[in-house]
Amino acid sequence: MWIAQEIAVKTAFLLRAAAAVLCFAATPVIARPASAPQLKVERVVMLMRHGIRPPTKPNVVPAGYTNEKWPSWPVDYGLLTPRGAAGVKLLGEADRFYYATRGLFGPGCPDAGSVVLKASGKQRAIRTAESWGEGFMPGCPAAVSHPQDGEADPIFHGLDDQPAWFDGEQARREALALAPKGGIAAEEHAYRRDLLLLAHVLDCALPACQALAAPNRLVAVPHGRPELEGPLDIASTASQTLLLEYLEGMPMKDVGWGRVSRAQIEQLLRFHPLKFRYSNRPDYVARAAAAPIAKEIVMALSGNTKLTLLAGHDTNIADLGGYLKLHWKVPSYPADDVPPGSALGFELVRDRKGDRYVRAFYRAQTMDQLRTLTPLTGKSAPFRQHIPIAECGNSVAATACTWTSFQVLVEQRQPAAP
């Protein structure tokens, strides 16, 4: 008898426990707030910097900065290296996977006209677009449109011809207004420790190396962007060269002649966005330089092309960053720096009601992913960060910037007609 009673009691207990578990498991489902509306990616535009290249000229720094011979490269000055092409191809493969998983592309070759590749007239940009296409759509037609030699390049190099309507002195005044208290001399003081590190790498010791003691100044170009002259400018070029040597996979004994570490390269890269601050990001400069690119982006998002790649240069991305007041931070790089192969992108997305929004993002490889040509899959996928669009909302909130607001913002930022 007591056995039967014990069984009945245990059975009742188990039934109550099971009911409690079911109730507990169901409660979060009932209490969970409604999820955000699902967004469908309709179109994408990416403004991408070219891949790894050697220096663009024989003398990386002027006479007096170093007597060292710079390492040799497998291609001529300024051209995309085979390793650079391989790194960009990896990005193409990763981008295809990313947008395939979001339903923008299926297997096989994309439909004709659904992917458009445009490039600056520079070989390194053209080859970057071609290499990215090889990764994104292997074995498929991937024609790249670009200016021919000698042709004007209004999209990527609009200020290079120094148009008569552009006021270089106004550009310089706006740039100087961005300087800290004490002007450009204060920047030199703030970066003194980094300049001394660069002097060590270049084997350019004070007082014998008077070049590093030269003053820095911001010079107005009559119809062009302001130019930073002096050690800060030289440091930007030299640090980029050290970075490119590292990314090219050169032995560390050859990177900076064995006098610089991986961490010190990252430290010296601070000079690169510093130069962008004065030559690319002043409002007057950015609006003039990036206006054609911004119009291209709106046109591409307005059309039928699913993905548009604009292969250009770090200056283009810095200009567009200033135009839309965008900021980003790639791991292993300073804030607002533009790594080789990285891209500033824009997605046009649609919710279930049919409302459209624009999201800005930054996509890049880290230094070591590119140096080792790491396949960009799984946990090694490229860095991707949604970034706020000033005056149009935070792109982390997917529905912050409406498509209409983005179009209005781009139009309002266009410079007045000359």
UniProtKB/TrEMBL annotation:
Transmembrane segments: none annotated. It comes from the Bacteria. CDD domains: HP_HAP_like. PANTHER family: 2-PHOSPHOXYLOSE PHOSPHATASE 1, ACID PHOSPHATASE-RELATED. It holds the Pfam family His_Phos_2. Belongs to the histidine acid phosphatase family. Residues 1-31 form the signal peptide. InterPro entries: Acid_Pase_AS (IPR033379), His_Pase_clade-2 (IPR000560), His_PPase_superfam (IPR029033), Histidine_acid_phosphatase (IPR050645). One of its GO terms (molecular function) is sugar-phosphatase activity. This is Histidine-type phosphatase. Keywords: Hydrolase, Signal. GO terms for cellular component: outer membrane-bounded periplasmic space.
